[in-house]
Amino acid sequence: MNNFVLFDTSILVDQLRTGRHQEGILSITELVRNSSVVLAELWRGASKAAERNLLRVLEKNYPVLVPTRQNWIESGELLNKLRRLRGFLPDKLRDLHFDVLIALTARSHGARVITSNQADFELIASVRPFMLEVW
Prior knowledge:
Helices cover 64% and strands 14% of the residues. It is built from seven helices and five strands, in the order E-H-H-E-H-H-E-H-H-E-H-E. Helix 7 links the parallel strand 4 and strand 5.
């Protein structure tokens, strides 16, 4: 397997807003990869020029992993399973969908997801295991 790290949106947003993950980010020894899903989420909320410039730097300097056709199909199956197991309503499933895609994309590349969104990613891992680290 590869030795990649993929930061979830929650880590990058926290870092942009507060700088609280600086030490952790600098301590990473694995190769860093971006998720196209994370970049899309970040672009959606980028309101300042500095944020948009940082996104361009991330895109340019770190390869972007993209969900495959199978990741998309599996994401629907996984969300359906969560609906049946946990009784989640459509709004919760919609909220989880991007996180599921991030997890499945990382899993298919052997990457570890680093997140501060513990509840949602541990829920996903309980149904489809993947490498996860919570900060």
